[in-house]
């Protein structure tokens, strides 16, 4: 006969899903009817970045993360659950936490990227029971008109098939209400450090030139409308922004403006909340559909759906190809020994915004100073690194990972691979003509002037 400790807790690890509502993994943990220990890890350099000697994470990335965690912590506190912030990405700390608390299992979001999967494998290898839940896509795998191991090779076919089959996006879930916290003994928490010292978001001030203007502090629910040009981290801030954005004329204009370079208005700026999961993609879609019912569909509202499909596509690609997307030659049939050229010095100059190409240098300064970059400039600087400087695309992806406040492993790897021409698209890579990009997108030099200096 086995003895079951009914008071034993379950550990919930918040990864890129920093929200309580529409979080199937969190809902599953709460449904176990056990007290919950909530943990997260402060971001540190991943193995992908360490491999390229990247010195550290940008202040913007750390601050947006800290501001998001502060909001999550506030929401959990209201439920009587404290959030432990562990440092260093060390899985041993989770194992220790499990052993000292007698936790029956750990529940978390599944992330289908090699480094993130290795984290769960090491927990399982230590004997921990780990339940991971695939949940960051718009759709459920079983609703797709093809199996995830047989994905259409190009995005347009993926989109056409999804649209033809009218695949429903996952219905957002409410936040669970029956949740209780677990009292940790002081022995258990001695190895837990708080993030408040190093990455205090309240001291962070966004660069006034940044295309993503945010402020620390909670969204005040008494404010009916969030100021669209100055936003807040966390679920409440994200939902307030989403509501205000969808009430504005920006949606209808999105298709025409989305290739802009400066200011908050040219694109949706949904990615910072999506990346940390403060708002889920199905929640964004539900709000977008409600907007279309109330105000009518436009080219802009359709194009936002189109872009969210790109986000999904890179996620499904990861499920299909996994580690293949991280090889030097990506999915190309090439011997593993075949090297991708890389020039360390050129890479460093690129990261510092000192390549001598005005447009690229402006983009790299914007990235370093603000943690954000328009989609157009992400494409331009990525193409320049790969095709003009002859550097390894994976180094560029790692630099973006360290800098972007909206870093998302799937979208980042997928887009870099796409520009390098090493993914599924048979048309090869995307080499951008810099003179043409400059003439088309910065004809008067306003963008280059804005970012002619660093901070
Ligand atoms: C080299 C490169 C690296 C990138 N790295 C990231 C990353 O780490 N994190 C990230 O979120 N996006 C990444 N992107 C995709 C895209 O640039 C950003 O999602 C977008 O610029 C975010 O701003 P927005 O929310 O205003 O986008 P909008 O143009 O308003 O689009 C709405 C949403 O659609 C999705 N989306 C739009 N374009 C893409 C795309 N090309 N691929 C996948 N999803 C897309 C995003 O979720 C975005 O929030 C990268 C693109 C390139 C070219």
Automatic annotation (TrEMBL):
Keywords (A to Z) from UniProt: Chromophore, FAD, Flavoprotein
Textual note on the cofactor: Binds 1 FAD per subunit. Binds 1 5,10-methenyltetrahydrofolate (MTHF) per subunit.
Photolyase/cryptochrome alpha/beta domain sequence ranges: 8-138
Keyword Lyase attached: no
Gene3D superfamilies in UniProt: 1.25.40.80, DNA Cyclobutane Dipyrimidine Photolyase, subunit A, domain 3, HUPs
Cofactor: FAD; (6R)-5,10-methylene-5,6,7,8-tetrahydrofolate
Record function comment: May have a photoreceptor function.
Record family assignment: Belongs to the DNA photolyase class-1 family.
Entry protein name: Cryptochrome DASH
Organism per entry: Rhodoferax mekongensis
């Amino acid at each position: 006969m086995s003895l079951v400790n009914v008071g034993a807790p379950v550990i919930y690890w918040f990864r890129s899903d920093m929200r309580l509502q529409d979080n199937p993994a969190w809902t599953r943990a709460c449904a176990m009817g056990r007290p919950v220990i909530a943990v997260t890890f402060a971001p540190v350099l991943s193995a992908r970045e360490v491999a390229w000697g990247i010195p550290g994470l940008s202040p913007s990335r750390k601050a947006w993360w800290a501001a998001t965690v502060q909001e999550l912590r506030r929401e959990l506190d209201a439920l009587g659950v404290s959030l432990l912030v562990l440092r260093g990405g060390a899985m041993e700390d989770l194992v220790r936490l499990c052993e000292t608390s007698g936790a029956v299992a750990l529940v978390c979001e599944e992330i289908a990227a090699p480094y993130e999967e290795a984290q769960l494998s090491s927990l399982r290898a230590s004997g921990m029971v780990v339940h991971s839940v695939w949940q960051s896509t718009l759709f459920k795998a079983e609703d797709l008109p093809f199996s995830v191991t047989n994905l259409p090779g190009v995005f347009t076919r993926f989109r056409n098939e999804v649209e033809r089959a009218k695949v429903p996006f996952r219905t957002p879930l409410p936040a669970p209400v029956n949740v209780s916290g677990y009292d940790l003994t002081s022995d258990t928490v001695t190895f837990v450090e708080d993030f408040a010292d190093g990455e205090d978001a309240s001291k962070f001030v966004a660069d006034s030139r940044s295309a993503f203007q945010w402020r620390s502090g909670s969204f005040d629910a008494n404010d009916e409308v969030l100021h669209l040009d100055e936003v807040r981290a966390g679920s409440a801030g994200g939902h307030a922004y989403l509501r205000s954005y969808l009430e504005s004329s920006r949606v209808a204009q999105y298709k025409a403006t989305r290739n802009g370079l400066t200011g908050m208005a040219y694109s949706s700026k949904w990615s910072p909340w999506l990346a940390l999961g403060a708002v889920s993609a199905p929640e964004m879609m539900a709000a977008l559909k409600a907007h279309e019912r109330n105000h009518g569909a436009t080219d802009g509202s359709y194009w936002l759906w189109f872009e969210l499909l790109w986000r999904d596509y890179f996620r499904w690609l990861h499920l299909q190809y996994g580690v293949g997307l991280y090889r030097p030659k990506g999915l190309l049939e090439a011997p593993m020994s075949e090297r991708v050229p890389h020039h360390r010095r050129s890479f460093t100059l690129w990261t510092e915004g000192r390549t001598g190409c005005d447009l690229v240098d402006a983009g790299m300064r914007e990235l370093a100073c603000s943690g954000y970059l328009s989609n157009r400039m992400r494409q331009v600087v990525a193409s320049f690194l790969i095709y003009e400087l002859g550097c390894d695309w994976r180094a560029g992806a790692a630099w973006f990972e360290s800098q972007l406040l909206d870093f998302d492993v799937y979208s980042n790897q997928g887009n870099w691979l796409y520009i390098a021409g090493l993914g599924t698209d048979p048309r090869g890579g995307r080499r951008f003509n810099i003179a043409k990009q400059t003439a088309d997108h910065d004809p008067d030099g306003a963008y280059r002037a804005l970012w002619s200096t660093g901070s």
